[in-house]
Automatic annotation (TrEMBL):
SUPFAM superfamilies named in the record: P-loop containing nucleoside triphosphate hydrolases
Name of the molecule in the record: polynucleotide 5'-hydroxyl-kinase
Keywords: ATP-binding, Kinase, Nucleotide-binding, Transferase
InterPro entries linked to this entry: AAA+_ATPase, Clp1/Grc3, CLP1_P, P-loop_NTPase
Cofactor(s) the protein requires to work: a divalent metal cation
GO molecular function: ATP binding; ATP-dependent polynucleotide 5'-hydroxyl-kinase activity
Length: 355
């Protein structure tokens, strides 16, 4: 399932935009900005196909982490279309930047860095770089767009809006590049939360369709994105004391700036403890957690689903479609903030501070 497919049945102003892009110097970086279901991906697909028809080399930077075309979700991805395509879902990525969640409000820095890194890579080879962004245009989404624009300095920012809804954002981003404003097409259709979830379900399932279980040596591949594994391992008497005080089964723990403990509750009663002293993580939160394999350049060859951790042996069992050569490039295993099954079912989101 894809929300957008290639069509030339577009409003006339899209052809004017195409001519403007053709007139830009090379490489031309074009950032598409609009609220959810405003038609950004449809516009990107139209522009990319027409630019390819003109013989230009096109790059697509897909940063819409929750409604990704280029697999997998929860990453920023770079692809170079080699020919006409109906939907970004047909494209294979050349590089990813791991975000680890489909709701990037707490990860605006990573989102901006990911777009910048991949746009820089794309600009080395492409004539035109088309940057698709999330529909997150309120709250911290405004700051996220500002950071992206400030870092990338696109030659053109294209705003798709209804009734001037992005006027504040356009004013905020005006120092960072030329702007074009288009009306949302009358054919643009709003999708329910359930429909968007179903789109992601199919994309997760497709990405993990040929996955296998691999063992990751956490003494060689550094676990990151979490407070776990920092500091010295807890002594057995410290685990016993924490277990007795809070009625926990302490599975693993470390003493750094504070105690970081992986635990299971022995009963359902209330517990009082200072979170400035103890960071307690339910073991269940680590089950089916999305993780990213990170290479020495900070890029992400691909993602996996954490199935089990042997804390004593520092080994992790991860389900991933990555090849052995791709896995050999990993120097970090970065913890994300969404739990998902290989069937595509999303089990829940975690806040940044929970891990």
């Amino acid at each position: 399932m894809n929300k957008a497919t290639y069509t030339e049945d577009v409003p006339p102003d899209r052809f004017g935009l195409l001519e403007r892009i053709m007139s830009l110097g090379r490489p031309a970086r074009v950032m598409l900005i609009g609220a959810t279901d405003s038609g950004k991906t449809t516009l990107l697909t139209f522009l990319a196909n027409r630019l390819l028809d003109e013989g230009l080399k096109v790059a697509v930077v897909d940063s819409d982490v929750g409604q990704k075309g280029v697999l997998p979700p929860a990453t920023v991805s770079l692809a170079f279309p080699e020919g006409p395509f109906e939907s970004p879902g047909e494209l294979s990525a050349m590089a990813h930047y791991f975000i680890g969640t489909i709701t990037p409000g707490q990860y605006i820095g990573e989102m901006a860095v990911g777009v910048k890194r991949l746009t820089d890579l794309a600009s080395r080879e492409a004539d035109v770089v088309l940057i698709d962004t999330t529909g997150f245009v309120t709250g911290s989404g405004i700051e996220m767009k500002r950071l992206k624009a400030e870092l990338v300095r696109p030659e053109l920012m294209v705003f798709l809006e209804r009734k001037g809804e992005l006027s504040h954002l356009r004013r905020l981003l005006s120092p960072y590049g030329e702007m074009v404003t288009l009306s949302v097409s009358e054919k643009a259709r709003e999708h329910s939360r359930g429909e968007r979830r179903e789109v992601r379900r199919e994309k997760w399932r497709a990405y993990f369709s040929n996955a296998s279980l691999v063992e990751v040596d956490l003494s060689k591949v550094v676990p990151s994105g979490t407070e776990l594994f920092r500091g010295r391992p807890l002594k057995q008497e410290e685990k016993d004391l924490l277990s007795a005080l809070f009625r926990w089964l302490v599975i693993a723990g470390w003493k750094g700036e504070r105690y970081a403990v992986v635990k299971a509750d022995a009963d359902s009663g209330p517990r009082q403890y200072s979170r400035s002293v103890i960071h307690a993580i339910d073991f269940e939160m680590l089950s089916n957690l999305l993780v990213g394999f990170i290479d020495e350049n900070g890029l992400c060859p691909g993602v996996g689903i954490l199935k089990w951790i042997n804390f004593g042996g520092m080994k992790a069992q991860v389900l991933t479609p990555l090849s052995s050569n791709e896995l050999d490039r990993a120097v970090e295993l970065r913890f994300g903030r969404i739990r998902v099954l290989e069937t595509g079912e999303e089990l829940g989101l975690l806040r940044r501070e929970e891990l």
